[in-house]
Write the structure tokens for this entry.
Amino acid sequence: MYVTLKVEVEKCNGCKRCIWSCPDPNVLLYVQEEKQVAVNQHRCKGCGLCVTICPKKALALSDN
């Protein structure tokens, strides 16, 4: 099964907690211009650590 990490941009406040919690580098990236987080889907393993740590509930895993 393939899992996709999605960011609800209207909820993301750019706190970067998800980036710090991710065990793999360059999965979650901070986009300075938008002051939000973006996901590199090719690197994400779907562990869900970022989902649990996000205070705004802006991240979600979905099955494709």
The radius of gyration is 11 Å. The longest helix spans residues 17-21. The beta strands are 3-7, 28-31, 36-39, 59-63. The first strand starts at residue 3 and ends at 7.
